[in-house]
Design goal:
Elements lengths: L16 E5 L2 E4 L5 E7 L2 E6 L5 H16 L12 H12 L5 H18 L4
Antiparallel strand pairs: 1-2, 2-3, 3-4
Helix pairs in contact: 2-3
Amino acid sequence: MPQSSPLDLETPQSSLFRKVGECLYRNESSGTYYGLVKKSGKQYRRSLKTKDRKLAERRLSDFRQKVGGLSRTQSASGVTFAALAGRWLESLRPTLKVSSFSRREVSLTQINGYLGSIL
Protein backbone atom coordinates (compact mmCIF):
# COMPACT_ATOMS: atom_id res chain seq x y z
CA MET A 1 0.00 0.00 0.00
CA PRO A 2 1.54 3.39 -0.95
CA GLN A 3 2.54 5.80 1.77
CA SER A 4 0.29 8.82 2.04
CA SER A 5 1.56 12.28 2.81
CA PRO A 6 0.70 13.81 6.20
CA LEU A 7 -1.77 16.25 4.69
CA ASP A 8 -3.43 13.91 2.19
CA LEU A 9 -7.05 14.64 3.01
CA GLU A 10 -8.43 11.63 1.15
CA THR A 11 -7.17 8.96 3.55
CA PRO A 12 -8.47 7.91 6.97
CA GLN A 13 -4.97 8.40 8.39
CA SER A 14 -5.33 12.14 7.89
CA SER A 15 -7.84 12.45 10.74
CA LEU A 16 -5.00 14.05 12.69
CA PHE A 17 -5.33 17.19 10.54
CA ARG A 18 -8.37 19.42 10.83
CA LYS A 19 -9.18 22.20 8.41
CA VAL A 20 -9.41 25.43 10.40
CA GLY A 21 -9.40 27.97 7.60
CA GLU A 22 -8.80 28.46 3.93
CA CYS A 23 -5.57 26.55 3.13
CA LEU A 24 -4.90 26.25 6.87
CA TYR A 25 -4.79 22.94 8.75
CA ARG A 26 -4.01 22.07 12.37
CA ASN A 27 -2.42 18.86 13.60
CA GLU A 28 -4.59 17.71 16.49
CA SER A 29 -1.87 15.81 18.34
CA SER A 30 0.77 18.56 18.30
CA GLY A 31 -1.35 21.66 17.72
CA THR A 32 0.99 22.85 14.94
CA TYR A 33 -0.51 24.64 11.94
CA TYR A 34 0.19 23.69 8.33
CA GLY A 35 -0.38 25.56 5.08
CA LEU A 36 -1.57 23.92 1.88
CA VAL A 37 -1.43 25.96 -1.33
CA LYS A 38 -1.98 24.88 -4.93
CA LYS A 39 -0.40 26.54 -7.96
CA SER A 40 -0.27 25.34 -11.57
CA GLY A 41 -1.67 21.95 -10.64
CA LYS A 42 1.00 21.36 -8.00
CA GLN A 43 0.37 21.22 -4.27
CA TYR A 44 2.75 22.88 -1.80
CA ARG A 45 2.53 21.95 1.89
CA ARG A 46 4.56 23.40 4.73
CA SER A 47 4.55 23.48 8.48
CA LEU A 48 4.01 27.04 9.67
CA LYS A 49 5.96 26.18 12.85
CA THR A 50 3.54 27.74 15.29
CA LYS A 51 0.67 26.82 17.54
CA ASP A 52 -0.83 30.32 17.51
CA ARG A 53 -3.72 30.77 15.05
CA LYS A 54 -3.14 34.45 14.26
CA LEU A 55 0.60 33.93 13.70
CA ALA A 56 -0.20 30.92 11.50
CA GLU A 57 -2.50 33.08 9.37
CA ARG A 58 0.25 35.68 8.90
CA ARG A 59 2.80 33.00 8.01
CA LEU A 60 0.31 31.41 5.62
CA SER A 61 -0.01 34.76 3.87
CA ASP A 62 3.78 34.91 3.47
CA PHE A 63 3.86 31.29 2.27
CA ARG A 64 1.16 32.05 -0.32
CA GLN A 65 3.20 34.96 -1.66
CA LYS A 66 6.30 32.78 -1.96
CA VAL A 67 4.39 30.06 -3.79
CA GLY A 68 2.74 32.71 -5.97
CA GLY A 69 6.18 33.90 -7.00
CA LEU A 70 7.17 30.47 -8.26
CA SER A 71 7.07 30.05 -11.98
CA ARG A 72 7.33 26.93 -14.06
CA THR A 73 7.98 28.74 -17.35
CA GLN A 74 11.14 28.28 -19.38
CA SER A 75 12.22 31.91 -19.02
CA ALA A 76 12.01 31.80 -15.22
CA SER A 77 14.06 28.62 -15.10
CA GLY A 78 16.74 30.16 -17.33
CA VAL A 79 18.53 31.86 -14.46
CA THR A 80 22.32 31.76 -14.67
CA PHE A 81 24.59 30.37 -11.99
CA ALA A 82 26.00 33.83 -11.31
CA ALA A 83 22.55 35.32 -10.71
CA LEU A 84 21.47 32.47 -8.48
CA ALA A 85 24.73 32.56 -6.53
CA GLY A 86 24.31 36.30 -6.01
CA ARG A 87 20.79 35.86 -4.61
CA TRP A 88 21.97 33.06 -2.33
CA LEU A 89 24.87 35.15 -1.06
CA GLU A 90 22.63 38.13 -0.28
CA SER A 91 20.26 35.86 1.66
CA LEU A 92 23.18 34.86 3.90
CA ARG A 93 24.41 38.40 4.61
CA PRO A 94 22.28 39.04 7.75
CA THR A 95 23.31 35.78 9.43
CA LEU A 96 27.07 35.80 8.82
CA LYS A 97 29.99 37.70 10.25
CA VAL A 98 31.77 39.99 7.81
CA SER A 99 34.75 37.66 7.47
CA SER A 100 32.55 34.61 6.80
CA PHE A 101 30.54 36.52 4.21
CA SER A 102 33.73 37.77 2.56
CA ARG A 103 35.14 34.24 2.34
CA ARG A 104 32.01 33.01 0.55
CA GLU A 105 32.03 36.05 -1.71
CA VAL A 106 35.62 35.35 -2.82
CA SER A 107 34.82 31.68 -3.42
CA LEU A 108 31.79 32.53 -5.56
CA THR A 109 33.79 35.07 -7.55
CA GLN A 110 36.30 32.35 -8.42
CA ILE A 111 33.61 29.78 -9.25
CA ASN A 112 31.72 32.31 -11.39
CA GLY A 113 34.72 32.41 -13.72
CA TYR A 114 33.90 28.84 -14.70
CA LEU A 115 30.16 28.52 -14.12
CA GLY A 116 28.87 32.09 -14.28
CA SER A 117 27.08 31.88 -17.63
CA ILE A 118 25.76 28.34 -17.27
CA LEU A 119 21.98 28.08 -17.08
